[in-house]
Design brief:
The chain is mainly alpha-helical. Helices cover about 55% and strands about 5% of the residues. The protein has 19 helices and four strands. Strand 1 and strand 2 form a beta hairpin. The longest helix is centred in the last third of the chain and has 23 residues. The protein starts with 13 loop residues before the first strand and ends with a helix.
Length: about 400
């Protein structure tokens, strides 16, 4: 027994014991007393009889976890498929899903994310469907031009369905679009504070979503553009962890053959390349600081041509890896990824104090020359990969 000031609350089943002020009692008997068919005084964290007999004392909250494990074993052995609805985002089952994903995979279970409440302030900032379209149009004409991590056709065609099933995630993404595409005189705006707090609320709820990750990258871009350090560096690290939890880090290692899967796959690939770019760019000031993300190898797939990406129609002839990327059919974002790959080698050379830089220097200037030709052909006012090369 312990006083309420010393022991943690056992949860909603904890009741004040009227016979002994300050001591906690539970509604149900412990498992040991139930099995022995004896009277339990329901003291927490251990009843009196179990304390006297030095026996294990487990209450129904712990028994439910064991039941879940038994159910998973039964489903796995039978090969069935089930869906587990989670009544609360704070449920311990979400943590168990994260800690032991192999069990959930073998049991073919599906976790239903709980909707995060949207306040009136958030809803007013987002506005109507027309307001969302206006915000997204502004974003696609500005930031999207050089950091195209969101499929415009996919976004526009899914607004209504996401308003129904992923409302909080959509609102976070829209507010992040507005944040990074609106010019402000000072970085510490009410919108920035609102978006950061809303992102924290969704992230801590246990939701794992591509929309949330895209929003987090846009927040990091805002912080980078307004020199908010070390917040930008920490935000990129958080994006890398979140992407790994979603399995997006593997998106550059393979390429599917079906058109139906291509848009989602390409979106994930672009998200991971964006994280790689930001991680390396943020280390320019201190090359000896360890990168958060691993370097892409030569067999890693580059983003698709931007024209195909904007139209949503895949061109099978324009699929390249870092090893095969010697074509003028590469998109601008693919060149941006190439520049990030070379920047990674520069960081390694500087941190290791290597003098063998001649070949790397020639490769960098070769990319600059190609980018200049493409910028002239495509009439580009800004070339992100050239900026990285000169940086």
């Amino acid at each position: 027994m312990s006083t309420s000031n010393e022991s943690p609350s056992p949860g909603p089943r904890a009741l004040a014991n009227p016979g002994n002020a300050g001591v906690l009692a539970l509604r149900w008997s412990c498992a040991t007393c139930r099995q022995s068919k004896r009277r339990c005084d329901k003291m927490y964290p251990k009843c009196t009889l179990c304390s006297q007999k030095n026996a294990p004392c487990n209450y129904p909250g712990r028994r439910k976890r064991q039941k879940l494990k038994n159910r998973i074993k039964a489903i796995t052995s039978q090969g069935g498929v089930r869906q587990l609805p989670f009544p609360s985002a704070n449920s311990s089952f979400i943590a168990e899903r994260f800690l032991d994903p192999d069990v959930f995979y073998r049991a073919q279970l599906t976790v239903v994310n709980t909707d995060v409440a949207v306040t009136d302030n958030i809803a007013n900032l987002v506005g109507s469907v027309l307001d969302i379209q206006t915000t997204s149009d502004q974003f696609f004409k500005s930031v999207h031009v050089w950091m195209p991590i969101i499929s415009k056709p996919h976004f526009c065609s899914n607004i209504l369905s996401r308003l129904t099933y992923k409302r909080a995630e959509l609102f976070l993404l829209v507010l992040s679009m507005k944040l990074c595409s609106t010019r402000v005189e000072t970085w510490n705006t009410p919108l920035y504070e609102t978006v950061k707090l809303f992102h924290f609320k969704i992230e801590t709820s246990g939701v794992l979503s591509v929309l949330v990750l895209q929003a987090a990258i846009l927040i990091a871009l805002y912080e980078l553009g307004h020199s908010i350090y070390p917040a930008a560096y920490l935000s990129v690290g958080s994006c890398a962890r979140y992407a790994t939890a979603l399995g997006i880090d593997k998106s550059i290692l393979s390429s599917s053959a079906t058109q139906a899967q291509w848009i989602e796959e390409e979106e994930c690939r672009r998200i991971w390349w964006a994280i790689l770019v930001l991680d390396r760019y943020l280390n320019l000031s201190d090359p000896k600081r360890h990168l958060i993300t691993p370097d892409a190898d030569l067999e890693s797939y580059l983003p698709a041509d931007d024209e195909a990406w904007e139209s949503g129609v895949r061109n099978h002839d324009h699929t390249f890896t870092l090893a095969t990327a010697n074509s003028y059919h590469l998109g601008l974002f693919a060149r941006f990824a190439q520049a990030a790959h070379l920047l990674s080698q520069v960081l390694h050379h500087v941190s290791e104090q290597s003098n063998e830089t001649a070949q790397l220097r020639r490769t960098i200037f070769a990319l600059v020359n190609v980018s200049n030709i493409e910028a002239s052909m495509r009439r580009l006012e800004y070339c992100s990969q050239t900026a990285v090369c000169y940086a």
